[in-house]
Design brief:
Length: 372
């Protein structure tokens, strides 16, 4: 009972950041289908068995993969049949557009994140796999799919997950509840820095991937990726499943990293394996900073990467004498210590901006509370 209570309260706590962020239709429709179409094709897909391939970077992680396979304790969505294999049991040469585990593992340099992998050519949702098996997997494990047929977006949206997308979820734990809501910012930052780093390393044009607060990735005005965080709280630990969807190679219906590179006259194509390993290298570094020093040392880089410095937004203010709220324009300055938007009114008053919980576009439904 205690666990359930805490779980509920933590979901409420996290929903401060989650529930508002993806209730707007304009962008999410680009990636989301109507529920009925999605359900029909997901039902057909769920009839075919899913193949899940397990591997690890080190010998002991490979040994863990063997024991996990033998114990057959992995779970996957109820109605889906699946078969588990070890990477060593598969043909060495993966198919052209399949995620190449060897290429990925060879370039990964982390101590914890991304070292144990579950890969599948097609599965319902990587997020479901890591959430359902959270306690069976080593912390930092990643599930990667080439295609999802029940991909989940925020706010109950479905997430279009065709081939060419980077689709991954990984596990992590935290003790300090104050910094848990900031994890999604660190994930976004790790991804933008990974893409920048790969561009520099390979001498290709820099892609201007930016963070649309709180957890979207934008490229040239179009959504190119999104982050999803889910969590439970148990024995004083937050167990967090992080999902990342990034349009690497499929340029419909918006854009992708590689189609923007092509527009910049580059023949180079970013590969999901390199993006994933570089992302985990960056994430592990930033996560270490977040845990030991808080978000402060990352703020400058974050503000350089997000889209909102100096943004003018309309906020609503409830007045006891009036039925409808009054609207005021404020200027975004940065983030408050709790991870909300810090803004300043034209009269110099500082305030923290919260979502109203109803608006489709977060920046159109802000309520302010005054700061001392
Ligand atoms: O709504 C958003 O913008 C967040 C979308 C997150 C999608 C990713 S794709 C990999 C992982 N598995 C899922 O089912 N969803 C997340």
């Amino acid at each position: 009972m205690l666990v359930n209570t805490l779980r509920t309260s933590f979901h409420c706590f996290l929903s401060l950041h989650h529930s508002f962020s993806f209730t707007r239709p304009s962008y999410s429709n680009i990636f989301s289908r109507s529920l009925s179409v999605a359900t029909a094709s997901a039902n057909m897909e769920s009839q075919r068995p899913v193949v899940l391939v397990l591997s690890g970077k080190s010998e002991s992680e490979k040994e863990f993969a063997r024991s996990l396979k033998e114990n057959s304790t992995l779970k996957i969505t109820d109605d889906v049949k699946f078969q588990t294999y070890l990477h060593s049991e598969m043909e060495t040469q993966s198919e052209k557009d399949e995620f190449n585990i060897d290429t990925y593992m060879n370039s990964l340099e982390t101590k914890c994140f991304g070292r144990f992998i579950l890969w599948s050519p097609r599965l319902p949702s990587t997020q479901d796999i890591v959430s359902l098996n959270f306690f069976q997997l080593p912390i930092g494990s990643v599930c990667i799919a080439d295609l999802q047929f029940k991909g989940r977006g925020r706010s109950q949206n479905t997430w279009e997950s065709p081939k060419g997308s980077l689709l991954l979820s990984f596990t992590m734990q935290m003790e300090n509840g104050h910094v848990v809501p900031l994890v999604q910012y660190v994930v976004c930052l790790a991804m933008t820095e990974a893409i920048k780093n790969l561009s520099i390393r390979n001498g290709i044009p820099l892609l201007d991937v930016r963070i649309k607060w709180p957890n979207d990735l934008y490229l040239n005005g179009l959504k190119v990726g999104g982050i999803l965080c889910g969590s439970t709280y148990q024995s004083k630990i937050f167990n967090i499943s992080v999902g990342v969807g990034l349009n690497v190679d499929n340029d419909k219906p918006t854009t992708s990293l590689n189609s923007e590179l092509q527009k910049l006259n580059s023949d180079y194509k970013l590969q999901r394996e390199d993006i994933t390993s570089t992302f985990f290298d960056k994430f592990e570094h930033f996560f270490h900073i977040l845990i030991h020093q808080g978000f402060q040392p990352l703020k400058e880089l974050y503000y350089k990467t997000w889209l909102h410095s100096g943004q003018r937004v309309i906020v609503q203010e409830k007045n006891q004498e009036q039925d409808s709220p009054t609207e005021n324009v404020v200027t975004v300055q940065g983030l408050t210590s709790s991870g909300y938007l810090l803004a300043i009114a034209d009269n110099g008053e500082r305030c923290e901006l919260h979502p109203d919980g109803n608006s489709f576009d977060f920046f159109k439904g802000l309520v302010r509370s005054k700061l001392a």
